[in-house]
Amino acid sequence: PDDVPPDTPPGPDADTATDTTPDLASDAAEIAATGPQVHVDAPTPGYVRGTIGISAIATGDPEVVQVRFTVDGGLLAEDDTPPWEATWDTTGFDDGDHELAAVAYDAADQSAAAAVTVTVDNTPPDVDFLSPEPGEIQHDEIFLAVDASDNLELDHVDLWVDGGGEPVEVSEAPWELLYEGAALEAGLHTAFASAADAAGNES
């Protein structure tokens, strides 16, 4: 009766040992695994032209210490202090799609990247008058028509008569307009046309 069965659990007064030593190696690995986070703030996907500002938002623990901006994999600029910004002269690149990326590096030399695709367009559209022809006589309504094109995307054409006239926007082909000429004095008048593409280039 004085024997205690071998499978009897220890009583509440029994001494037990619990290992509370933190797993430092595991904790350190968990912190390092977080790494930086980054996304391209500007520009947004779409058309770009000329010299533009570019920026990224980057955070991390350890802290982010540098952001590099690349275009199609080639280094464009580096920034070592927030806000993470640079400029991009797009005129040195061919018209068309390009990938702009921001690569963030933290104090542990971990990195993360984000990218956007933008369309460079530094070429203005072409526009030529079809009507009226030089010296042509028209009455009451003046028929204005142009041939307009762009290497990427034509947005609209403005047509008007005389320098002080109010331009009328034509947003789709055919690029033509019947201009009310009854209010114009008899004599020589000049027709004007301008074309704009989706990137904002004009001619």
Number of helices: 1
Q: Helix amount, in percent? A: under 10%
Content of β-strand: over 45%
Overall morphology: rod-shaped
Provide the spatial order of strands within the biggest beta sheet.
2-8-7-4-5
Number of E-type strands: 14
What Rg, in angstroms, do the CA atoms define? 34 Å
> Spans with pLDDT under 50 lasting ≥5 residues?
8-14, 24-29
Structural class: mainly beta
**Helix-strand sequence:** HEEEEEEEEEEEEEE
- Main sheet? 5 strands, mixed
Mean pLDDT, to the nearest integer, reads 87
Give a short overview.
The chain is mainly beta and 203 residues long. It is built from one helix and 14 strands; from the N terminus they run H-E-E-E-E-E-E-E-E-E-E-E-E-E-E. The strands form four sheets. The protein has a five-stranded mixed β-sheet with strand order 2-8-7-4-5, with no helix packed on it. The protein has a three-stranded antiparallel β-sheet with strand order 1-3-6, with no helix packed on it. The chain has a three-stranded antiparallel β-sheet with strand order 9-10-13, with no helix packed on it.
Detailed description of the structure:
The protein is mainly beta. The protein has one helix at 24-34, and strands at 36-42, 47-48, 51-60, 64-71, 74-79, 84-89, 96-106, 111-120, 126-131, 141-149, 154-161, 168-170, 176-180, 191-197. Strand 4 and strand 5 form a beta hairpin.
